[in-house]
Amino acid sequence: MSTARMENPVILGLSNQNGQMRGSVKPAGGPGGGGGGSQTTLPAQVKPSSTVNNGDSQPAPTANTIIKPGDDWKKNLKLPPKDLRMRTSDVTATKGNEFEDYCLKRELLMGIFEMGWEKPSPIQEKVAPTSFPYLNVFDYLAVVVVPTRELALQVSQICIQVSKHMGGVKVMATTGGTNLRDDIMRLDETVHVVIATPGRILDLIKKGVAKVNQVQMIVLDEADKLLSQDFVQMMEELLNCLAKQRQILLYSATFPLSVQKFMNTHLQKPYEINLMDELTLKGVTQYYAYVTERQKVHCLNTLFSRLQINQSIIFCNSSQRVELLAKKISQLGYSCFYIHAKMRQEHRNRVFHDFRNGLCRNLVCTDLFTRGIDIQAVNVVINFDFPKLGETYLHRIGRSGRFGHLGLAINLITYDDRFNLKGIEEQLGTEIKPIPSSIDKSLYVAEYHSESGEEVKL
């Protein structure tokens, strides 16, 4: 897996209204460069093209490799640089299966390997018999529902890349905040994979544009969020529009009562897979710094100067505080982006795209950015504002240490946060330690990890 390139960050000269703040760019790779889950889902009818509807549509890759019988097809693969970082035992403790063991088409295997996925993870080994066959037959229609627009774009891009050698596969992302007319035009043709947020897909169904009566599979990614009070009514409406005979896949790092209630109502003899022996991620080292509210910015500046940050995500509890903090960070001389739900969609898309591509080291955000977002280069998460719920805390710190890699989570704790800190420790069965004067770089900096890719037993 390739990481975001940080050697020469380029900060675009945009107004601060679009989430990209300007500040002097500090060199990466040393002090002053301040600033998972193991669950993989496989997403698609409803009817367009192989474009990602993100305001800047681009065609999906098409099959361009002709494989003849007897060819050593693996020699022709365009593989990303090998990821030599250490990984924790929760993602390395596999049965030793290979992707070839699942009778997948060669064209699909090519896309998988070119993503940098060498072997199935533990959860993929368990899920493969029930969901992998879908990927072999793309006249089979499915919908993937996710809670945020950014996650929809991420999942759709992965689907496009994985299926790029399977000529004719159509993938579409559809989310709120984008032009509804564009979606209607795309739905003039059959789409094999649709990744959608709940409100938009329901809107398209009610308008008679999205024909979902033949959808055989629906995937709920981040199911705990989708079945919370924010979305559950829409999810009930959506399921009522689908055929009675369809497969439902739920993926979640947590399993609240809302998910259990949904399962009891809509799933017949469900097959449950649970590989989470603990809620907190094994590779994430957690610390807290006890500060007053007025000391937070100074503490953050100190962290920037002392930590070796590749990329960081900094969480605040409100959109207003996100923008204020991003402005403070830029005034300190560090470039940063910010993102929250009240921004215009095209600005959110650009911030998300540019941060994923390594154009900035720091991102300030709300909990909009907690769910499923996978940016391999993020090695530090900072809770500038401490969350009230253990579930929120778990998803926030999970933005570092992705897929068993090592990361750092630092929490700025005020007097008013002390009971939440204790409560979250008890709820998650974890220990958040006081921050030491010096943090061992081997806990979160890739260059200090073993280059053999050996696992770390934490």
TrEMBL record:
Can you name a GO cellular component term?
cytoplasm
Where in the sequence does UniProt note compositional bias of the Polar residues kind? 39-65
From start to end residue, where is composition biased (Basic and acidic residues)? 69-79
Q: Does the keyword Magnesium apply?
A: no
Q: Where does the protein principally reside?
A: cytoplasm
Q: Where is this region: Disordered?
A: 1-79
Q: Would the keyword Kinase turn up in this protein's UniProt record?
A: no
The superkingdom listed in its UniProt entry is: Eukaryota
Q: Name one GO molecular function term.
A: ATP binding
Q: Where is the Helicase ATP-binding domain?
A: 142-273
Q: Which Pfam families does the record match to this protein?
A: DEAD, Helicase_C
User: Which residues does UniProt assign to the signal peptide?
Assistant: none
Indicate the enzyme's highest-level EC class.
hydrolase
Q: Provide the Helicase C-terminal domain boundaries.
A: 283-443
Where is the motif Q motif annotated in this sequence? 97-125
What EC number(s) does this enzyme carry? 3.6.4.13
- Family assignment? Belongs to the DEAD box helicase family. DDX6/DHH1 subfamily.
Could you tell me what this protein is called?
RNA helicase
UniProt source species? Sinocyclocheilus grahami
Q: Which gene encodes it?
A: LOC107572719
